[in-house]
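Late entry, evening session. Most of the bench is empty. Finally got around to the prediction I had been postponing all week. Sequence below, unchanged from the version circulated by S.P.
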Amino acid sequence: MPRIIDVAEGDEYSIVEPGLEGHYKFIRMNNNKSMVLREVETNDERVVSYDQFALMRGRGSARRIVRDGVATNTDAFGPFHLLDGDDPKVGIKERKRRQQMRKQMTRARTLYYYMRRFDSQPAPSTYAPKLRRFLKDTSDEAHKYGFDWMPSTNVMRIALRTHGKPGNRNLGNIFANSYRHKKSHWPDWVDKLMQETVIYYWRPNVRMDTAESYFIDLFNERRNTHGVPDLKIPGRSTIRGWLNKSETKELFAAKWGKRNAHKRFVGTVESIKAVRPLEYVMIDHTKTDLWLRITDAAGNVVGIRRAYLVYAIDVYSHMVLGAYLTFEEPSVHSLMKCIKEVSRPKTELEEEFGEAKGATDGWGKVGTYIIDNGLEGIGVSLQTVLEAVGIDVIFAALRTPEHKAHVERMFGATNGLWHQLPGGAQGGKDKRKLSEDDARDAAVYTLPQAMRKLCRYIVTCYHVEKSSGIGIAPARKWSLGLRKFGRPTVDDVNTLDRILGKYKRCLLTTHGIRVFVERFHDTYEVTALIADMISFEKKREGRGLGQTATIWVSVFYDPMDCSFVNVLNEATGALVRLSNVFPDSTQGLAWSLAKELRHFAEEENLAYHSDEERARARRALFDHLEQTGKEDPKSSSRASRKYHAESLTLAAGNQVIEAEVLPSASGLNGIATTLPVSLRRDHGLAPKGDVRGGKKALDAAARTREKKKAEKQRLQEMAERAATEEADLSVRKPIIEITGPENQSVESGDATNAGTVTDIQSYMARRAADRSRRY
């Protein structure tokens, strides 16, 4: 079959086909039915097959823009010309614009009708009498189609000359060459001033009224310079209209930033969608709009603060799988606390509310977490923890709440709850919405009380009410999804406990591991770790012969507890727990408070070298934080938050049992006062260790015992001899001493020297016989 296509010499096409984008002009048709197109800008010729060109024409990727030297102007006419001009919902200016568009449409369609009728005549002529007669005859028929307006002969001649050629006329060409904006009636220097004002307005931090005043001041100055002092100045509404119409993406980006310009001008992408429960879970945090009290044991107010709320929302059902309130700033610890809650059944909610239509059944193993790209979530820590249990992580785009639309919507719904409670206040940067009264004065709830209010709202309201986003209650959709797809669970949920917290690479030696300034050590565990991972030691970093091994290891530590760390044994894949060298006084002590404790101890001269001394310093810090918070509960001091974190070490479950008993001789009355030795710390006799050195060591120990026994006997004999000599001197008669140099030298000096020499020789002999001494 012959392949015939509607193409002629001089036709121009706009092609958007990948690999062939550009503006082309048709040149010729080859004998093999291929077509030659020449690019207008580069004059490069491209050969396109008939089938390819026909396919591009059929699907609209090759648009004809010129036919027989006449522009088609297919993009000049759009649906905005058909908008309802009498719509009462639009403003006055928009209504006038639409009515004007409708008049232009009617006029263009009328001209198009008359021109096509003119071209269809056997002998068309623009001679005035004939053209006038044609218009009059055609008008009777045009009225039947609603074309009430009849063009004059001059308008008809201009239209025939301007809008295409016979057989090649279109409505788009009429719009492209008619109704053009009239030339500005303002002088050129005013148009130039307006351009300068536009550039000035789109600078950062320039307000609309400032730009208007800028234009008015320069206008008054330049109209005198150009000799037209009576020229009327444009009104402020006119200037404002010029500035608003000048908005483009590039100018908006220069004023407000590229990100805001992108969000304003560029279409959004499709949000993440899930087809089953737990496929995607969004997790994020925010600062609540509710002031909460921090109280001491007696109920006195220590501080008033706003808490942070962490949510985990299932994308499929919009169920709240995890909720966590804390005074601590966002960190890996708060995110992991919420993640642990997602992976475990809500037993405490089931005990309080029952099944509640499935509203307390939100838990399981998540396929992928969508986490905010804040500093508290990114990095190795969270990814390592989740990948250990087979969970993927996607980080949302920076400063783009739309990426986590479901959890952001839940934050807004929860704010409605906070605003109804005492101490609730409108948040955000807009200070105009703040009330005159200080919301902190009305605060009555503590953190646990607010958490109970939140749980009640989630279970009894949000989960069982119809959601506009999914058209069904979240608990209902969750239950239906579980029946259809099942509930995946984590293989070993205890893994989340063992690797909870932050990640750090540390150096393992025979002295243990030092994380920041805290040291963690256990003789047996450290020995086992070194034995397993000695092959991982970097030989260049190794120390000399007889020195400790040095191995870099992966450590997980809880930001809220510096009493232990978990070390990854890379040889076996197991996690080994090492305790702090101060295990008792660091129990439940946050790392931030441990740092403050060191500074506090230095300032107060409370140096500690043992568990007991550090516990005393910690108690002194706790009292100091309590007193500081009571001095000004409304202050922004962090003392109240630190006091609350320290008070959590006395968590629910620590019980103190008081009992009244009758007096007895021992005071026990059957009350147990001790624990087994295996459960007590630093009590009881240490067991003897194995003998090192074998028979040689035993023989040396026996010789040492003999020497000590001989030395003890010698000292005893010397004491007896000294006592005997004192008794002899007491019974002798006094001797009159004769002075003189001769007698003194013979009788006293020589005798003394002789005795001294005898004693030294005896001492040196005994010393030489004692080989146990070092000299």
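Two things to note before I forget:
Residues 12-67 form one domain.
The longest helix spans residues 694-731.
Will write this up properly tomorrow.
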